[in-house]
Specification:
Chain lengths: ~500, ~300, ~230
C-alpha cells in the first residue's frame, strides 16, 4: 500500500542524520566526550535554545512564541539605497545655516566615505519642514499622505550601523551580519513561528524600483542562510503570475500535475536514501507547497479583484510592477495569514548623479511612488483591525551625510544635488501592535551627523522586533558551525524598551 | 617580654592597623562603624525616589561588580547604605553636588574612556537613566524623599521581562484540557494553538479555512471555550447563530469577524464581556457598538474602510 | 663527648631548602595575588594564583615524601595533643610544634581552596579563571563570592600566624623566622638525640616537575588540545 507523502517525509526526517554529523571528529569530539562524562553533573555551557522540531511534512506549521506576543505578522518596507533622513524626518535648521560652507574637519577626520573625497560642502535640507500631529512632530513636505498618520508612527532617529556600502549594509539590516550566509529576519521569523496559512509561503518578498540598480546584495537578503532552505523568502511578482512558472502549462491538469509530483517525490526520496541530504526533505515540502500555492497564490495576489476605489487609494495599476501594487498585495497577504511580508523599493541612493540619484529629481519621484501607497496600506490595516497585531517597519540600510556628495572631489558644479552614505545616524519608523504611537525616539546633533541621545544599533532593532513577536532574541537560535547562531549576532543586544507600549 | 605585654602590644598594633585602614578608606570606616552599631545605617524608604527609580538602575547595571558577590573598589551599590558609604576612594555621591559625585561623573564619561562606568562590554546607561541619577543627586541624594517630590523625571520604562519557561509548570496548567486540545488539533489542523510556550491559553485561527469553517465547527470547539483568548473567524461561514457560543468565552480578548455574515445581533451578545479588548467586524450600528465602546473596546469596522 | 660536640655546634639544620623556599615563595605570592587583584592586574593575579596552586600541590607531595620535618606525619598531631600543648604542655620540637602543625595544615588547606575557587571565578567583565567555562554562570558567580570570603578568612589566619610567631619570638625567645630562613635552630630548642633525614634535592625537583607537567597536561586538555 502506497504510503502517503506525509508518512514518507516523517520517515525520511528520522534518517536525516548525515554521515558528516555522525563522524564529528571536528572541534569537540573526544574532548567533548570526556567533558560530558567527567563533568556529567554540570549544566550545559551554552544556554539551551528552544526546540523548533516539527512534523517534517509541514515545516512551516505554526509554533507558539516563547511568551505572549504583541504582533503576529510583520510587513517590512525596505527603502533600498537609503532614503535621506535629512529630507524626510530629521529637521536640522542649523544645517540650513551652514549650507554651502566647507565641512568642518571634525566631521571628516578619521572617517571613511563611499564617494566623498577632500573637503565637501555642507548641504542644508532641500525641502521645507513643518510640525504636524498631536505632538508637533517635525516632517518635511515630501510625505503628505504618510504625515496624516504621524500620530500612529514611532520614529527612531538614532539608528546606527557600521557598514557604509549598500550590499553589506542591506545584509546587516536584513540578516544581522554584513556578510552573506546568514539567515534573514523573515527566515528566522518563519522558522520560529511558522505561518498561519499553509497554502501560501510564510515569507513573501515583493520588489519594485525606480529606474536604476536594484537589490545590491541580491537574493541573500531574503535567503535562509544556514536555516533549512524552506524558510527562505519567496519573491513574488505583482504583475502577471505571482510566481513565475507556478501555474501549470496549458493542457496540464491539476490531476496530472499531481502524478508528476508523485514521481518527482519518489526520485527525491531515492536521492535522500542514497545521499542522506536533509535538503531533499525540504525540497519535497517545497514542491508540495507550490502545488497548494497554485490555487491560492494567484487569488491572493490578484489585485484586479479589488474595487476601483481601493485601487485609486493606493495608486495601484493592475498589470504593472509598482510599489503601490505591492502594498495592496501586502495587505491582501496580511489578511490571508502570511507571516512575513517584505517589500523592497529600490532607487533611494541620492548621490546626486545621475538624474535619478538627484535629491531634486530621483528622490522626489521615490517619495511620490511610495508615500501614498504606504499611507493607504497603514489605513487599510488599521480599518481592518490588523494593525493591532501586525508590525510595520519602514526604513533603509543607512542614512545620508549632512555634507554634499562631491563626487570624488570633483569641483564641477553639478546640477544634481546629492548626499553620500552615512552610517552614524539614520531614521526608520515602526508602527503596530506593542509599539508606542506618536513618538520620536533618539536624537542627532545639530548637523544631523552623530547620534546624541539613545543610539539604537541594528541588532537592537532586531532584538526589539523579535521581542514583539514573542521571543527572547537569545533563545531563538540555531546551532551551526559550533555556535548557537542568532539573528542579533554575537554582540550583546538590547530590546529598545522605550518604544514599547 | 612577658606574654601580657606582648599580647597587649598585638592588640594595640591591630587597633592601630584598623584605625589606619579606616582613615585611608572612609568607605571601610563607615562599614565597620555601622556593623558595630556606632553609626546608624542609612536606609531608604519603600516609596522614595531612590528605591523606585535609582535602586533599580544600580541593580540592572552595577551590582554584578558592586554588590554582594563582588565589591570592586570597595563600592557596594546594592543598598542605600552602601551607595552612601562609597568605596576605596571615598564617597561617590555628594548631595546636591553633581560635580563632586564621582558616580555621576563615571557614568557620563564617553564609552571609550578607561574610567567610564559600566566598563566596556556592559550596556551603558542611557540618557534617561543618567537624568534620573542627576535629579536624585540634585535633590539631595536622599533615601526618604518620595517619588512624587522630584519633578521632571523621565517616564519610568518597565524593564523588558523575558520569562523563563518552566515546562513542568506549563504542562500542569495545560493538563486539564490537554486531551481535548490534542483531539481537536487533529480534527482541525493548524487552527488551534497555545498563546505561547509559557501559557495554557488558546488562540483559534480558522480564517485559512474560509467558508469550510462554520457554526457547527465552532460548536465543536466548545470544550475549549474557557481558555480561548483570541478567536479569528475572518472570512469564515460563521453566522449570528454562534453568538451565544462567542458570548460564553470568559477569557476572550480579541475577536475577528471581518468578512463573516454576522450582524449587530452578535455584537449585542458580546456586550457584557468584561475581557474583550479588540473586535473586528464588517459593520454594525452605533447603538449596538455603544456599550462595548464605552468599556474601551477597540472596534474596527471593515466596511468603513472601503 | 657527644654533649661537647653538640655544644660546639650551636645550630642544627632542621628545615630543608624546598620547605623554606616554599614558605617564602608563598608569602610573596600571597602578597602579589592580593595586590594584583586589588589593582586590577588580572593576568598577574592568574599567574601568581597558578604558581601558588603548583607550590601547594608540591608541598602536599613533599609532605609525603620529603624530609622528616617536612612530612605531615611529623607535625600533625591528634586534637588532644594540640590542646594539651596549647594549655602549656612543654616539649621541644625540631619541626613544627603541634599548634604550629595545625596552623600549617589549616593554612595549606585554606590556600588550596582559595586557589581552586579562583580557577572557577570570574570578575564580572572580561576576565575569568581558566576553568570558569566548565561551570554555569551562576555557579561561577557563587564560587567568586566564596573566593572573596575565603580571602578574608585567610587574612585572619595570617594574622593569627604572625601573632603566634611573634609570641614565640618576643615572649619565648625562639626566633622561628630566622629558622625558616636559614633552616637552623639552636640545639637547645630541639629534642636531643633526634635524627632528621633530609630528602635529596633532586627528588624535590622531580616532584615539582611532575606537578608542573600534570598542570600543563590539564591546561592542554581544557584548551581543547591539538589531538582532540
Amino acid at each position: 500500500m502506497r504510503k502517503t507523502t506525509e508518512d514518507l517525509l516523517q520517515h525520511l526526517q528520522a534518517l536525516t542524520q548525515t554521515r558528516r554529523q555522525f563522524v564529528g571528529w571536528g572541534a569537540g569530539g573526544l574532548g567533548a566526550f570526556f567533558m560530558n562524562t567527567a563533568m556529567a553533573a554540570q549544566q550545559p555551557i551554552a544556554s539551551a535554545g528552544l526546540s523548533f522540531k516539527r512534523d517534517p511534512s509541514t515545516p512551516l506549521s505554526v509554533l507558539p512564541p516563547q511568551f505572549p506576543a504583541k504582533v503576529k505578522r510583520v510587513i517590512y518596507l525596505h527603502m533600498g539605497g537609503a532614503p535621506s533622513q535629512l529630507e524626510l524626518f530629521d529637521h536640522k535648521p542649523t544645517l540650513s545655516r551652514f549650507n554651502g560652507h566647507d565641512c568642518p574637519d571634525s566631521f571628516l577626520k578619521g572617517k571613511r566615505f563611499a564617494f566623498i573625497r577632500g573637503v565637501p560642502k555642507m548641504l542644508g535640507p532641500q525641502f521645507p519642514f513643518h510640525q504636524t500631529g498631536k505632538n508637533g512632530t517635525w516632517i518635511s513636505d515630501r510625505l503628505p499622505h504618510t504625515e496624516k498618520l504621524i500620530d500612529e508612527l514611532c520614529l527612531i532617529k538614532s539608528m546606527k550601523t557600521d557598514q557604509f556600502n549598500h550590499a553589506p549594509a542591506q545584509l546587516l539590516v536584513q540578516t544581522g551580519d554584513a556578510r552573506t550566509g546568514h539567515a534573514s529576519l523573515g527566515s528566522w521569523v518563519t522558522y520560529g513561528l511558522g505561518t498561519e496559512n499553509q497554502n501560501l509561503p510564510g515569507f513573501i518578498v515583493l520588489a519594485s524600483s525606480g529606474p536604476g540598480p536594484t537589490a545590491n546584495a541580491g537574493k541573500p537578503l531574503w535567503g535562509s542562510g544556514y536555516l533549512p532552505s524552506v524558510y527562505q523568502g519567496v519573491e513574488c511578482r505583482s504583475a502577471g503570475e505571482p510566481v513565475l512558472y507556478l501555474n501549470n502549462p496549458k493542457d496540464v491538469s491539476r490531476a496530472s500535475r499531481r502524478q508528476v509530483l508523485d514521481a518527482v517525490d519518489a526520485i527525491n526520496r531515492h536521492a535522500h536514501d542514497e545521499f542522506g541530504n536533509p535538503e531533499s526533505v525540504a525540497r519535497i515540502a517545497q514542491y508540495e507547497l507550490a502545488f497548494r500555492m497554485q490555487v491560492e497564490a494567484s487569488e491572493a495576489m490578484d489585485i484586479r479583484r479589488e474595487p476601483a476605489a481601493v485601487l485609486a487609494r493606493y495608486g495601484a495599476e493592475p498589470g504593472k510592477t509598482s510599489y503601490a501594487n505591492n502594498c495592496l498585495v501586502a495587505r491582501r497577504l496580511a489578511e490571508r495569514g502570511v507571516r512575513f511580508i517584505q517589500l523592497y523599493h529600490w532607487g533611494w541612493d541620492s548621490h546626486g548623479s545621475p538624474t535619478d540619484e538627484g535629491i531634486n529629481i530621483g528622490f522626489v519621484n521615490r517619495c511620490k511612488e511610495t508615500d501614498q501607497p504606504t499611507a493607504a496600506l497603514l489605513q487599510d490595516l488599521k480599518a481592518r483591525g490588523l494593525l493591532e497585531d501586525t508590525l510595520v517597519i519602514w526604513g533603509g540600510e543607512f542614512g545620508r551625510t549632512p555634507m554634499e556628495d562631491n563626487h570624488g572631489g570633483s569641483t564641477e558644479v553639478s546640477k544634481y544635488i546629492g548626499r553620500d552614505h552615512h552610517t552614524a545616524a539614520f531614521t526608520i519608523w515602526m508602527t503596530g501592535g506593542g509599539v508606542r504611537t506618536g513618538m520620536v525616539h533618539g536624537e542627532t546633533d545639530d548637523m544631523g551627523y552623530e547620534v546624541v541621545k539613545d543610539p539604537v544599533e541594528v541588532r537592537d532593532l532586531h532584538a526589539t522586533i523579535l521581542y514583539l513577536l514573542g521571543f527572547d532574541y537569545q533563545k531563538l537560535n540555531y546551532p551551526y558551525q559550533g555556535l548557537d547562531q542568532k539573528l542579533t549576532g554575537v554582540k550583546p543586544a538590547r530590546v529598545v524598551s522605550e518604544i514599547l507600549a | 617580654m612577658s606574654a601580657l605585654a606582648y599580647f597587649g602590644g598585638v592588640a594595640l598594633a591591630t587597633a592601630l592597623g584598623l584605625a589606619m585602614a579606616m582613615l585611608l578608606r572612609p568607605g571601610f570606616a563607615h562599614a565597620v562603624l555601622q556593623t558595630v552599631g556606632l553609626e546608624s545605617v542609612p536606609e531608604a524608604s519603600a516609596n522614595s525616589f531612590y528605591t523606585v527609580r535609582v535602586a533599580p538602575l544600580f541593580q540592572a547595571h552595577c551590582i554584578s561588580c558592586h554588590g554582594a558577590t563582588r565589591a570592586k573598589g570597595g563600592l557596594r551599590l546594592d543598598s542605600f547604605a552602601g551607595a552612601m558609604r562609597g568605596g576605596k576612594h571615598g564617597a561617590v555621591v555628594a548631595a546636591r553636588d553633581a560635580k563632586d559625585s564621582e558616580l555621576l561623573t563615571r557614568v557620563t564619561l564617553p564609552a571609550t574612556d578607561d574610567k567610564a562606568m559600566p566598563p566596556s562590554g556592559k550596556t551603558p546607561l542611557n540618557t534617561d537613566e543618567v537624568t534620573v541619577i542627576r535629579l536624585w543627586i540634585a535633590a539631595g541624594a536622599s533615601g526618604t524623599l518620595p517619588v512624587s517630590a522630584i519633578k521632571g523625571a523621565p517616564r519610568l520604562v518597565a524593564p523588558v521581562k523575558m520569562p523563563q519557561i518552566n515546562p513542568a509548570a506549563v504542562a500542569k496548567l495545560r493538563a486539564p484540557l490537554a486531551k481535548q486540545v490534542a483531539q481537536l488539533q487533529n480534527r482541525f489542523p493548524g487552527v488551534i494553538q497555545y498563546d505561547s510556550r509559557s501559557s495554557a491559553d488558546l488562540v483559534i485561527d480558522a480564517s485559512p479555512r474560509r467558508e469550510a469553517f462554520g457554526d457547527a465547527d465552532l460548536r465543536a470547539l466548545a470544550p475549549l471555550r474557557d481558555r480561548i483568548v483570541e478567536l479569528n473567524l475572518s472570512g469564515t461561514a460563521v453566522t449570528d447563530a454562534s453568538a451565544p457560543a462567542l458570548a460564553a468565552m470568559p477569557l476572550l480578548r480579541t475577536l475577528r469577524l471581518t468578512g463573516t455574515h454576522t450582524t449587530g445581533v452578535t455584537v449585542q451578545a458580546l456586550s457584557p464581556s468584561k475581557t474583550l479588548r479588540v473586535l473586528a467586524i464588517e459593520k454594525a450600528s452605533a447603538d449596538a457598538l455603544a456599550p462595548l465602546r464605552q468599556r474601551g473596546v477597540r472596534i474596527y469596522e471593515a466596511a468603513n474602510g472601503q | 663527648m657527644g654533649n661537647d660536640l653538640r655544644e660546639q655546634m650551636p645550630h642544627v639544620q632542621v628545615w630543608d631548602a624546598p620547605t623554606r623556599l616554599f614558605h617564602w615563595m608563598v608569602v610573596i605570592l600571597i602578597f602579589v595575588s592580593w595586590l594584583s587583584a586589588d589593582q586590577g592586574y588580572m593576568t598577574v593575579h592568574l599567574c601568581s594564583g597558578l604558581a601558588l596552586l603548583a607550590l601547594l600541590l608540591f608541598r602536599i607531595g613533599w609532605g609525603l615524601i620529603g624530609s622528616t620535618t617536612a612530612r605531615f606525619s611529623d607535625f600533625l598531631h591528634p586534637p588532644r595533643a594540640v590542646l594539651s600543648y596549647l594549655r602549656g604542655g612543654e616539649g621541644l620540637y625540631a619541626g613544627h610544634n603541634p599548634a604550629g602543625g595545625l596552623m600549617v595544615a589549616v593554612l595549606i588547606a585554606v590556600l588550596l581552596v582559595q586557589a581552586i575557587t579562583g580557577l572557577f571565578a570570574n570578575d564580572g567583565l572580561h576576565f575569568s579563571g581558566p576553568l570558569a567555562l566548565l561551570v554555569s554562570d551562576d555557579t561561577s558567580t557563587w564560587v567568586t563570592s566564596l573566593h572573596g570570603t575565603i580571602f578574608n578568612i585567610l587574612l585572619l589566619l595570617i594574622w593569627c600566624h604572625v601573632v603566634a610567631v611573634g609570641f614565640y619570638l618576643f615572649v619565648k625567645g625562639h626566633n622561628l623566622v630566622k629558622a625558616m630562613v636559614t633552616g637552623r635552630k639552636p640545639h637547645a630548642h630541639i629534642p636531643a638525640g633526634l635524627r632528621i633525614t633530609f630528602a635529596r634535592t633532586y627528588i624535590a625537583l622531580l616532584l615539582l616537575l611532575a606537578v608542573l607537567t600534570a598542570g600543563g597536561v590539564a591546561w592542554f586538555i581544557i584548551q581543547g588540545g591539538v589531538f582532540l
